[in-house]
Write a structure and sequence with these properties.
Helix content of chain A is 76%, strand content 2%. The radius of gyration of chain A is 20 Å and the shape is globular. Chain B has a single domain, classed as Rossmann fold. The longest helix of chain B has 18 residues. Chain B is globular, with a radius of gyration of 19 Å. The chains are: A mainly alpha, B alpha/beta. The structure holds adenosine-5'-diphosphate (ADP) and magnesium ion.
Chain lengths: 301, 267
Amino acid sequence: MSLFSFLGTLEIGFIFGLVAVGVYLTFRVLDFPDLTVDGSFTLGAALAAALILAGVNPYLATLCAMFGGAAAGLLTAWLNLRFNILHLLASILTMTALYTINLRVMGKPNLALIAEPTVLSPFESLGIPNMYLKVIFVAAVVIAVGLLLAWFLNTQYGMAMRATGANPRMAQANGIVINEKIYAGLALSNGLVALAGALFAQTNGFADSTMGIGTIVVGLAAVIVGESLLNSRSMLVIVFSCILGSLLYRLAVSVALNADFIGFTTSDLNLITAVLVGLALILPHFRREWKARKAAQGGAA
Amino acid sequence: MIRCEHLKVTFNAGLATEKRALRGVNLTIPQGEFITVIGSNGAGKSTLLNTIAGDIRSSAGRLYFDDRDVTALSAAARTRDVARVFQDPLAGTCGDMTIEENMALAYGRGNRGGLRLALNERLRQLFREQLSRLNLGLEDRLDAKMGLLSGGQRQSVSLLMSALQPSKILLLDEHTAALDPKTAALVMDITDQIVAEKKLTVLMVTHSMRQALDHGSRTIMMHEGQVAFDLSGEERSQYGVKDLLNLFAQIRPDGEELDDDKLLLGA
Ligand SMILES: Nc1ncnc2c1ncn2[C@@H]1O[C@H](COP(=O)(O)OP(=O)(O)O)[C@@H](O)[C@H]1O
Ligand SMILES: [Mg+2]
């Protein structure tokens, strides 16, 4: 792998680290499987690109992208909490609606950012080669977000959010308003995913209406890789294991794609990822069944 | 004080599975009174406690804490006054979170402060002190996952958690039923200590006649969603387990057998 493609892999790995922590928030913290992220990643990219092209300051554009993602998360939570629509279905509805909204935001299927200013522009005068600058910038953003999120999950509010997912009845018995925590968690999660989309659009120079497809699976893969590496009670370790999981996942994918003898192409990626995540979800299931069978045999003997 | 006025709860109203779980419960519990609640399975004991806690909305009737009408208040809002321990030791705590995190959650009941760290040294010290009352060695395992503890240990911690914040009302729903006799006795001991210390108004559902008579100062029996009898004072002090069983039999003239005599008679 060339240095250039290695740096590119790191950059994407860090950006998807944001997706991974977002997915961790919904799937693990809130126990709310949320597929909205496929749409909110694209929404973040679309909003950032469209606003920047309209002459808006890139930082303001990125902030707007985050609020857009948060709004999408709120919509999913509302469909689920207000109308009792199953969480998966509620998030699929939002995701589908976002597909149209993203096209409307962009006005066409894709937008290119070529000479436009981006969040990186203020740092270009530092004289760091662009390929390094991009990685350093996204790494700094992702690490800062990771630190903030780990701190947040240890605050009274964050801990209440964790209890909401872990044991809603207990949470309620301790005065926690669980619906509010679910709204907040989905907004935060999708806001972070939209931030990832906005950064992706600015570092890669484009936004595309189909770029979000499979985001959820990649995020989940990163969470699972991280979890299997580090098993800790510390929120800091857990959050950073999601980010590490994303980096490792990207590196593994990039190695696989670069190994000519395997013959994988980029278009095989979704299938490979789906199979990997599928296996990660299926294995614990088999392990449980196997254990149960062994216990049953032991009981009978 | 808790006052239930003609409290009714109907599950699945209008469906074939309609169940009138509470059929007009009238009950006044003065401040600081410890009531034990008995009754056969399905009598509505848990429903009564869940309705007082706000988990279940009453379909008719009113509920007062002191002189405040709390009928419309959410479960979360009622936790300023109400603490509770569930029958299932897994229900009252988060298994994925540590002992200290669980206690911090309970400590936040009633005054959740937002973006301040939920744990600090002062709180850890408080939690250690509280845990050392149990003599289970848990004070040295603050950062162990709750899921690693036994049912009895978890239930004991739940009980301590219910008393971390001042509250007026404590609801115990068969909170020793899932425990072995020795642990159950320990948990009952701590229950009595906490109730006396905090001068709580208590409703304790129990399957054990012995427990019902030995603890608290008043015993009610529920049957088919109503308070079938209400025993206190002199009369209660003369009651034995046998007498309670006779009362049971009177209420169920069809001669229906109690579900599990051993449980009912046991410690
Ligand atoms: N959520 C529910 N939905 C439907 N029926 C319920 C529900 N909860 C309790 N019931 C029914 O209400 C009756 C009273 O239940 P409960 O209060 O749990 O009795 P117990 O006295 O054993 O605690 C039972 O017949 C039970 O089946
Ligand atoms: Mg019950």
